[in-house]
Specification:
It contains three helices and eight strands, in the order E-H-E-E-H-E-H-E-E-E-E. A six-stranded mixed beta sheet has the order 3-2-4-5-6-7. A two-stranded parallel sheet has the order 1-8. It is globular.
Length: about 150
């Protein structure tokens, strides 16, 4: 299960809406081994495409160096689909290289880029196998509890 604070959840949706009609992409980092997404990092879609996303290789290298220095890892890797459902495409599955990450997809199709609810889903992708997981949006993490116990 992915537990995510409302502020980060809403920031991901806002990024997807802002970049529409191109796909948006980014990372939410968290302390290594915590499984708690805490630092929202919107990235530039270097492909600038409505059907594909690509992290800029220099930006991604800088991000990984920064996460290493902060003892963080990518807890969430997210991107949007602008004309299809929020489900990993074959390309998404092939690009999934973080076995511990939650892969979040947001669909901005059918006017969701302007207003109203969006399709916000999370998946685990390991060795090409896609497993959808529950998303629980919390107002704030309880600092004394793990994400599994957040309210």
């Amino acid at each position: 299960m992915l537990q995510i604070e409302r502020e980060i959840h809403d920031a991901i949706i806002e990024h997807a809406r802002r970049d529409h009609p191109d796909e948006a992409c980014g990372v939410v980092a968290g302390a290594y081994g915590s499984d708690r997404p805490t630092r929202f990092i919107p990235m530039l879609n270097a492909a600038m495409s409505p059907t594909f996303y690509e992290f800029d290789s220099a930006d991604l290298l800088a991000l990984y160096r920064e996460m290493d220095a902060r003892d963080e890892e990518p807890v969430v890797v997210y991107h949007s689909h602008t004309a299809t459902e929020a489900y990993p495409s074959r390309t998404d599955v092939n690009l999934a290289s973080e076995p511990n990450a939650h892969y979040v997809l947001v669909s901005t199709r059918d006017g969701a880029h302007e207003a109203g609810p969006v399709d916000f889903r999370s998946f685990r992708i390991v060795d090409g196998e896609v497993t959808e997981e529950e998303v629980r949006v919390v107002e704030r993490y309880d600092t004394d509890e793990s994400p599994q116990k957040a309210k």
